[in-house]
User: Which sequence fits this backbone?
């Protein structure tokens, strides 16, 4: 378990060196997007460049441009968009609960931020700008400046390793019906 | 009296959103003392730190400030000359502004957000009657991550309900922010099982032998905090039962994340 402190946007080299189980802290811009922003980007494209970006599955609680609470949301709801989002240049998806690992191979990582830890996350983030504000507070695309955002666990790496899947496999009891 | 209910609603939500009940914190600390996986220990420690930050700074500990669920115990001798659900809704609207809460309540089809956490059928108020003339109000803000993983199974009476529970927890836990609290409704009907499961979450803590055995079986799965491995998959289980039809075996699982928020206000 190696600990990395990286800056966004991420390089191809950053992605390649991360291995499932490593700890990561990120500094630099982060982009939030969840259900509605993903659906809208599928129709109309991204309002911002996501080249090398870390995309955060998060619907923050914001008051007057101050981040009050901003932990991760369940990534599984956005699973249908993974391939096209990574196609926009995203090199890290941050969330909780995991995503199918296949689209990440050789191009990106999935980073797990501890779920429910919104207050701790808020102290590591400040608002740079907001896009798609018509989608409402939780669903807008917020651009945050992250300072040592973490700890995050590399749960899916670019080399085909998926921690969630390993845990789930070993947890299966024999099928009874 | 109406004003007291409105104020109690705001106070209960404020406390529920920014702290955890002592018994919940205690369960996390006990799990940390037992946990053998380094990554799982890391998670449990960070969760405790997060609660400490939230409480010290008055920040909602999770950005998902939940759906407005309330449990009300009304004294049988108490007569209210106002609409209780309207008074609680007013408290929710005020709390949304002052705490503040993230506006979460949307129309199920248009997805239009009411921006104040209320709407048709919301807040959800579970009302029970007790002796006396008091009113006890518990705020139980329910986050979607864990609620989304909940389910009702209409089993064959020949099936083992505990196998069904363990199998579904194994499959769904990672998305529900484990370590979990599990409310189980066993028996009744399709909808009664679901209500019993929610009631079970409201009724924690304290496990029977049967509940402890199920807890042990779930923890032996090794799913761990956030689904990334460990000894701590669940922190508590409560089973509420009702008689069911001889041809039926309804089982409901209401998932609750580690951040098991609730706060109670007593109005005299």
Assistant:
């Amino acid at each position: 378990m190696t600990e990395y402190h990286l800056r966004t946007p991420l390089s191809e080299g950053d992605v390649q060196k991360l291995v499932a189980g490593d700890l990561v802290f990120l500094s630099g811009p982060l982009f939030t997007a969840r259900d509605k922003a993903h659906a809208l980007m599928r129709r109309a494209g991204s309002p911002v460049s996501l080249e090398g970006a870390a995309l955060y599955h998060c619907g923050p609680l914001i008051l007057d441009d101050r981040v009050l609470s901003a932990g991760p949301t369940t990534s599984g709801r956005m699973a249908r968009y993974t391939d096209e989002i990574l196609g926009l240049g995203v090199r890290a998806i941050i969330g909780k609960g995991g995503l199918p690992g296949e689209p990440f191979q050789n191009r990106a990582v999935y980073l797990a931020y501890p779920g429910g830890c919104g207050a701790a996350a808020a102290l590591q983030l400040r608002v740079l700008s907001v896009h798609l504000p018509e989608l409402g507070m939780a669903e807008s695309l917020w651009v945050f400046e992250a300072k040592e955002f973490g700890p995050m666990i590399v749960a899916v790496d670019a080399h085909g390793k998926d921690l969630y899947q390993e845990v789930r496999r070993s947890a299966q009891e024999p099928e009874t019906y | 009296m109406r004003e007291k209910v409105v104020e109690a609603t705001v106070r209960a939500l404020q406390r529920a959103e920014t702290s955890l009940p002592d018994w919940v914190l205690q369960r996390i600390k006990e799990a940390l003392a037992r946990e053998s996986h380094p990554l799982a220990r890391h998670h449990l420690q960070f969760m405790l730190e997060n609660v400490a930050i939230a409480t010290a700074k008055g920040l909602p500990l999770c950005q998902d400030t939940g759906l407005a669920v309330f449990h009300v115990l009304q004294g049988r001798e108490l007569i209210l000359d106002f609409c209780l659900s309207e008074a609680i809704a007013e408290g929710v609207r005020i709390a949304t502004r002052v705490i503040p809460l993230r506006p979460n309540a949307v129309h199920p089809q248009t997805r239009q957000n009411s921006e104040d956490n209320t709407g048709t059928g919301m807040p959800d108020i579970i009302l029970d009657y007790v002796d006396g003339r008091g009113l006890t109000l518990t705020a139980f803000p329910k986050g979607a991550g864990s609620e989304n993983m909940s389910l009702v199974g209409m089993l064959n009476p020949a099936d083992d309900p505990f196998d069904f529970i363990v199998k579904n927890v194994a499959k769904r836990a990672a998305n529900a922010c484990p370590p979990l609290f599990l409310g189980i409704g066993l028996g009744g009907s399709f909808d009664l099982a679901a209500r019993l499961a929610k009631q079970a979450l409201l009724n924690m803590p304290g496990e029977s032998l049967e509940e402890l055995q199920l807890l042990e079986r779930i923890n032996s799965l090794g799913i761990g905090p956030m689904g990334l491995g460990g000894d701590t998959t669940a922190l508590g289980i409560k089973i509420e039962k009702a008689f069911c039809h001889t041809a039926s075996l309804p089982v409901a699982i209401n998932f609750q994340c580690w951040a098991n928020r609730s706060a109670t206000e007593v109005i005299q």
